[in-house]
Amino acid sequence: MASAVSWAAPPEAALITQALERAEGNRAQLEAALADVPEAQREGMRFLIAYMPEKDLQSLQAEFLLRNVAMAYKAREEMPWGKTIPENLFLNDVLPYASVNERRDDWRKDFYERFAPLVSKCQTPGEAAQILNRDLYKLVDVQYHATKRPKPDQSPYESIEAKYASCTGLSILLIDACRAVGVPARFAGTARWAKKRGNHSWVEVWDGGKWNYTGACEYNKKGLNEVWFLNDASHAVKDSRRHAIYATSWKHTGESFPMIWARRDQSVPAINVTDIYTGKAEQLLNAGECLLGIQVWDRPGGERVVCAVRVLQGEKELHQGESTGTGNDTNHIYEVVLKQGETFTIEYAPTAPGEGNEKPLSKTFDTTKEAHQRINLYLKS
Asked: pLDDT-based confidence at 8, cuts 50/70/90?
């Protein structure tokens, strides 16, 4: 009988007792999971239940929990880096079946079978995370879109079904793929950027003895920690819940993750990780300079378009780059540093054929005295 099994040994003993009491009518399922889990996996099951959100205590079945725990240990055993992961990170950042408040999908076995072959020759968790970020979204046919995704906090299978996801849904998908193959990964983000409007979510991956960051569905061949939002993140305010940066935790921390899509929900434990990002600004403005964000749209009220962009002053080219399209995060905008209160010209043309005029369009404009500015350009009026 499940009641004959003692789970008083681990430090979480009191929490497990409380969890079973809060499980109400689902208590028998949790007791079955604790009783039936193999001895080698018992610590993981105890940890999972000790810190489990109340809604999961009252709904998840023993079969679901046993399968998730078994597959997590299988990945730890079979992946080249698995045994190098510290125990506390395995329990807190590999074993959990969810990141935030998303629907609880039974993804682990499926994702292991899909993605383990992709990363079986990798030697580090960071290398595996990079390959997953590069190939995952093509394999499951999911891409970013700010409005076509049904909701922000999609589960992995909800995103796969919809074929679109926000930065939140994309991050959940990458985290689950990482955890399925034994890579410690956690959800990170800010409720609001300190220096501009908007929020953002991304992924942190453990590698090289530290936490690293990457944008979900934003693979960069240069490696981890090469992200477009580093300048924004560098201005985060540690003592401000609104402007700080948090990462999720399964274990209770005394803080909760600020989910702007579910503001009243404080069920997700969090760690304030602002110090990882501050002081790493990519663009530091000097006196008399401004940061200009450039967006190109197919038409007023339409979609963002990827265009080759040149910024000139007279005949001198100052910047050359590329605007972002609908497949990029809404907050990801091509930015350049210019002098305030001077005249410049932008030339722009679509990078994909047939999206506009073959010859570059141009717009001449004056910057203002503001430090942060933005200009919208259009292929058709």
From this structure: very low
| Sequence-ordered list of residues with C-beta below 8 angstroms from that of 272, at least 6 positions apart, any chain | 238, 244, 245, 246, 255
The total number of structural domains in the chain stands at: 3
Residue 330 maps to which CATH number? 2.60.40.10
Tokens of 8: 């008083």
The token pair that represents 122 in the structure block = 């990798």
Integer angstrom CA distances of residue 2 from 29, 61, 91, 218, 238: 10, 15, 23, 46, 45
d(CA 48, CA 250): 8
| Whether residue 98 is found in the same domain as residue 232 | yes
Check which CATH number belongs to the domain holding 137 and give it: 3.10.620
For residue 243, what are the contacts with CB-CB under 8 A and spacing of at least 6?
190, 191, 192, 193, 194, 236, 237
Tokens for 197, please give them: 């409007």
Model pLDDT, residue 355? 54
- What pTM was computed for the model? 0.86
For 236-252, the pLDDT digits (tens) are 999 999 999 999 999 99
Pairing type for strands 185-190 and 246-248 reads antiparallel
Say yes or no to pLDDT of 7 above 50.
no
Judge if 227 and 340 occupy the same domain. no
Q: Which domain holds residue 40?
A: 1-60
Assign 115 to helix, strand or coil: helix
DSSP secondary structure of 13-52: HHHHHHHHHHTGGGHHHHHHHHHHS-GGGHHHHHHHHHT-
Residue 354 exposure: Cα atoms within 13 Å on the Cβ side: 0
Which pLDDT does position 328 carry in this prediction?
79
Tens digit of each residue's pLDDT (9 = 90 or more) over 152-161: 999 999 999 9
